[in-house]
């Protein structure tokens, strides 16, 4: 089950060592968590769902437009901590998060699927400590998972 936190943004950027490595204007910031059982099918489902999710306002101020409709951009940041299990104790367990080798290949495949839709996609840097800056729009924050539990 792949997990994603999607935030509608006016702008966002990612820095590594005070150097901007990815940035977008209007669009969505995607924090992507890859589990140890995720497959390409999970990547495809989440990427297509995000590209067509109607979370942008139309002329009547109703959320009827997708990222594709507004020709917005996506900034994708890998975040294994979305798999933190806090049910026992005080320290999250990351046992269900994918190992780096699998996570990196799924992360890159996910980005490829988004780019195939024709949208502009920028990224963070896999396995790096990143500073993420954003101006939230709304705020609108959506949770998705590929097993459709929420």
Ordered list of secondary-structure elements with their pairings:
Blueprint: E1 3-16, E2 19-24, E3 27-33, H1 40-52, E4 56-57, E5 63-65, H2 67-70, E6 73-78, H3 100-116, E7 120-123, E8 131-145
Parallel strand pairs: 3-6, 6-7
Antiparallel strand pairs: 1-2, 1-3, 1-8, 4-5
Q: Could you characterize the architecture of this molecule?
A:
The chain is α/β, with parallel strands linked by helices. It has one domain (3-145): 3-Layer(bba) Sandwich (D-tyrosyl-trna(Tyr) Deacylase, Chain: A), CATH 3.50.80. It has 3 helices and 8 strands. It has helices spanning 40-52, 67-70, 100-116, and strands at 3-16, 19-24, 27-33, 56-57, 63-65, 73-78, 120-123, 131-145. Strands 1, 2, 3, 6, 7 and 8 form a 6-stranded mixed β-sheet that branches. β4 and β5 (63-65) form a beta hairpin. α1 crosses α3.
Summarize the structure.
With 150 residues, this protein is an alpha/beta fold. 23% of the residues lie in helices and 38% in strands.
């Amino acid at each position: 089950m792949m997990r994603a936190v999607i935030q509608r943004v006016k702008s966002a950027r990612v820095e590594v060592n005070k150097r901007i490595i990815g940035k977008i204007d209007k669009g969505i910031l995607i924090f992507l968590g890859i589990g140890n059982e995720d497959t390409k099918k999970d990547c495809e489902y989440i990427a297509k769902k995000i590209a067509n999710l109607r979370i942008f306002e139309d002329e009547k101020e109703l959320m009827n437009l997708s990222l594709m409709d507004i020709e917005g951009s996506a900034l994708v940041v890998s975040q294994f901590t979305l798999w933190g299990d806090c049910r026992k104790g005080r320290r999250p367990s990351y046992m269900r998060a994918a190992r780096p080798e699998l996570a990196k290949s799924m992360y890159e495949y996910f980005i490829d699927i988004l780019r195939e839709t024709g949208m502009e996609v920028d990224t963070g840097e896999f396995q790096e400590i990143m500073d993420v800056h954003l101006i939230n729009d709304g705020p609108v924050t959506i949770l998705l998972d590929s097993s459709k539990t929420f």
